Amino acid sequence: MLRLKTTLIRIFAVSLIISLPITGCGSKNNGQTGQQQSAQNGQNNEEVPKQLTDIEESIESIITALKGPSVPKDDEGSKNTANPNEEDKEKNSPTDESGNKNNQEGDKKSGEGSDQGGESKDSESPSPAQNTPSPKEGDTGNKPQSSPGKSPQQDPWTKITPLVNRLHYQWNELRPDASSKGASRELTDNFSNSLNNLTNTIITKNKEGTLMASNKLYSYIPDILYLYKSKTSPELKRVKYYTRDAVLNSLTPNWSVAEADITSLKSSLSTFKNTTDKKLNEDVSKLDYSISELEKVIKDKNQPLIDIKGRVVLTNINALEKASEK
């Protein structure tokens, strides 16, 4: 009888000990996605601050300046396509605005002997902005007009340096607000460290390293976005990060990481699909198919096609972001 009581006591004690870790594990798992859960529960109702939007645009601008895997928004693309025509108009405008100049050029062709008259008229026609080159050098007069059209060939680092400097000020404005909304110390520290790493890499003018560091900084955008009420799903931003990371690692090449990025990308896409509006099904389908195409060329290790397929995916993401904001 005594042995039976002792056995029962031991069984009770063991069952009590076993039950304690189970409840502990449950509370730990709930804390792993605290920021996402608070967003889903509607605790974060404030609109996305301008500083966060500006940070994202600055990162995209750095990647675009280095001709990395980034696709401009529709409005930016239309501006880029319009610029060459505007430059052509500017080149032709001096001759159109001054009818005398057209006659002067005709006179030069028909009577080259009248050099003195042609030179005196040319010196009177240019505007103040055109007086920078010597009016006597007719051939060199066209070079200042064509140089703006060649701006993409200029050193990209002259554009990138002020962009990364601006990022530090933008983050300085955003960090206190993000912390007050529940951003963890780990998240804000990781963003700060990543920004410092990007800055140091830019100083060395390492193109590949700068593209990777820029995208790494972008990887924290979705987590910060979860703190606010956003029309665009943070998971769609995460899909953009993994897409770009897969392309960059394929071009390195680092195929194992690129394939892992595709796996993570598909996981984020699945999360996005579960919360997206049915009105976006057609756009989601386009994105889904383009990701499958990208996955295929990565498995084939076809680097030229990876860059193209990656940009198609990014274009579809931009289209979904625009549709989500309507």
From TrEMBL:
Composition bias type Basic and acidic residues, residue spans: 104-124
Feature: compositional bias, Polar residues: 125-134, 142-156
Region (Disordered): 29-158
Originating organism: Pseudobacteroides cellulosolvens ATCC 35603 = DSM 2933
Protein name (record): Uncharacterized protein
Biased composition (Low complexity): 29-45
